[in-house]
């Protein structure tokens, strides 16, 4: 056990170094984009007349405090060790974690600047192909930003998405839709696996937007082909109140409003599968909607929900993931058994709990401190979407079609390699030396097996459900 813990700590350090290199790469790209801006600015000023140091703001003074006028781009490298502690495995001892800077302390890079002369202000934009890097890493081309004003809002820029207005019976509800880069560039060819919808009752704030931006970065949900919607019903209700229009007075009326928002997102995105997420009170709305729309909702992910749990927990048939830090003071972790009981008493229940030791009520901090929780969220999403996709693939194969195979392959590639290896051993009956290889190769081989023997889809679905219900064991845990 001591050797396993040491190995896990070493792996955590290596992952942290990889993340640090990725962050450094992003900052280098930002500096390259900045150099492009300066080059374009110099060319513009040269073409327009005599070039003066004061035109470029390079006279060494800014006229106020004597500091250099050119901005300094900060580079901060995070170093962290994952913290792993789950309620279902009391023998797992938490590991120490580093203390990286808070995500909110990072200053963003402004990719458009203004050069001021005594006569006029001339805006100089970045090169047309210069990318903007949101926290989740899926860059947005500059020409797309200029063509669509919906990307320009402050909250949309922080989340790396675009603003949309959901038309509902209670009026327009603002929503930020974050989509993978491939869907923005080539929506007709992109393979989309579904939409995750995040609910919270309070209006969006700067801190909450930054929190969810870090969640997207840590979980890498966009990499799996999943879009994420952040409707702001709280802001819509607040605006109605300011306009003198009475808002919902009972929980049934509020539930109807959330249903309206959900229907509007369905109409605008038109996907086959949806995952509902909620934090605090938003977890109640997520579960209520999941229970009423189980034909479209394949799963729910709940973050530190308020208590007591709603009765809808027993009505939703899909898999549920519960993420709750043990040191949460706002929504005390002591209430977790109440939720576990409600979620566990369902027929054929599939549920998993992740309970990191530290993080409080800040989900970004939870995922920063516990790498396993962030990784398992992506694996959970891929597994539950596969459970929903495989019956469709099986039906298509029965009709002589295989249009869903690209969706299945994309999700298989997001599963942990040890799980793919286990599935290959179960399905193909190969020995361990025959199932080693890259995760993408294993995913392709497993899909080929299903295409040849469609009945294998049933056993794969059952194995995925059992893996979730057994606390999603890692490769080391599964082999012990």
Q: What integer is the average pLDDT?
A: 76
Overall outline: globular
Query: Could you state the order of secondary-structure elements as H and E?
Result: HHEEEEHHEEHEHEHHEHEEHEHHHHHHH
What share of the residues does DSSP label as strand, in percent? 5-15%
Count of runs of 4 or more consecutive helical residues: 17
Tell me the number of strands.
12
Summed up, the domain count is 3
Helicity range of the residues?
A: 40-55%
The CATH topology of the largest domain turns out to be: Rossmann fold
Brief characterization of the structure:
With 480 residues, the protein is of the alpha/beta class.
Structure description:
It comes from Symbiodinium natans. Residues 87-115 are annotated as: Disordered. InterPro entries: AB_hydrolase_fold (IPR029058). Residues 101-115 have a biased composition (Polar residues). The protein has 480 residues and is α/β, with parallel strands linked by helices. The protein folds into three domains: 2-102 and 112-127, no CATH class; 140-370, Rossmann fold (3-Layer(aba) Sandwich), CATH 3.40.50; 384-479, no CATH class. It has 17 helices and twelve strands. The chain has helices at residues 2-48, 53-56, 142-147, 154-159, 181-185, 206-219, 233-242, 251-269, 282-292, 336-344, 363-369, 371-398, 405-412, 417-428, 439-452, 456-469, 475-479; strands spanning 112-116, 121-125, 131-132, 140-141, 162-168, 171-178, 194-199, 226-231, 274-279, 297-303, 320-323, 351-354. It has an eight-stranded mixed sheet, with helices on both faces. Helix 12 runs antiparallel to helix 13 and helix 13 (405-412) packs antiparallel against helix 15 (439-452). The longest helix has 47 residues, at 2-48. The chain is globular and about 60 Å long. It starts with a helix and ends with a helix.
């Amino acid at each position: 056990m001591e050797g396993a813990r040491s190995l896990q700590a070493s792996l955590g350090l290596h992952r942290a170094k990889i993340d640090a290199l990725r962050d450094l790469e992003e900052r280098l790209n930002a500096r390259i984009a900045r150099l492009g801006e300066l080059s374009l600015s110099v060319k513009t000023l040269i073409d327009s007349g005599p070039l003066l140091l004061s035109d470029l703001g390079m006279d060494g003074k800014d006229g106020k405090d004597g500091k250099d006028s050119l901005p300094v781009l900060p580079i901060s490298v995070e170093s962290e060790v994952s913290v792993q502690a789950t309620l279902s495995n009391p023998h797992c001892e938490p590991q120490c974690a580093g203390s990286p800077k808070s995500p909110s302390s990072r200053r963003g890079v402004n990719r458009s600047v203004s050069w001021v002369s005594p006569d006029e202000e001339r805006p100089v934009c970045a090169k047309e192909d210069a990318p903007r890097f949101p926290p989740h890493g899926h860059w947005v081309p500059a020409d797309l930003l200029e063509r669509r004003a919906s990307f320009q809002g402050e909250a949309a820029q922080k989340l790396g998405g675009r603003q949309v207005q959901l038309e509902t019976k209670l009026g327009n509800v603002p929503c930020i839709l974050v989509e993978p880069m491939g869907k923005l560039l080539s929506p007709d060819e992109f393979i989309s696996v579904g939409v995750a919808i995040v609910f919270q009752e309070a209006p969006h704030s700067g801190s909450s937007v930054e929190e969810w931006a870090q969640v997207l970065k840590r979980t890498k949900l966009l990499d799996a082909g999943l879009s994420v919607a952040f409707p702001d019903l709280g802001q819509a209700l607040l605006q109605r109140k300011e306009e003198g229009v009475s808002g919902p007075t009972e929980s049934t009326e509020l539930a109807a409003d959330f249903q309206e928002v959900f229907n509007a997102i369905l109409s605008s995105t038109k996907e086959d599968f949806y995952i509902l997420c909620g934090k605090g009170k938003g977890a109640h709305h997520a579960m209520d909607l999941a229970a009423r729309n189980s034909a479209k909702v394949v799963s729910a992910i709940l973050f530190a929900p308020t208590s007591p749990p709603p009765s809808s927990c027993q009505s939703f048939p899909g898999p549920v993931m519960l993420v709750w830090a043990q040191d949460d003071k706002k929504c005390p972790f002591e209430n977790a058994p109440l939720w576990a009981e409600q979620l566990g008493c369902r027929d054929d229940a599939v549920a998993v709990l992740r309970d990191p030791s530290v993080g409080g009520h800040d989900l970004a901090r939870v995922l920063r401190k516990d790498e396993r929780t962030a990784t398992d969220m992506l694996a959970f999403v891929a597994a539950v979407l596969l459970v929903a996709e495989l019956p469709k693939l099986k039906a298509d194969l029965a009709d002589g079609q295989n249009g869903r195979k690209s969706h299945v392959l994309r999700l298989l590639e997001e599963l942990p390699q040890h799980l793919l290896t286990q599935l290959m051993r179960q399905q193909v009956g190969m020995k361990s030396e025959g199932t080693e290889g890259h995760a993408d190769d294993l995913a392709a081989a497993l899909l080929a097996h299903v295409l040849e023997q469609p009945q294998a889809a049933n056993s794969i679905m059952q194995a995925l459900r059992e893996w979730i219900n057994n606390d999603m064991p890692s490769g080391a845990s599964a082999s012990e």
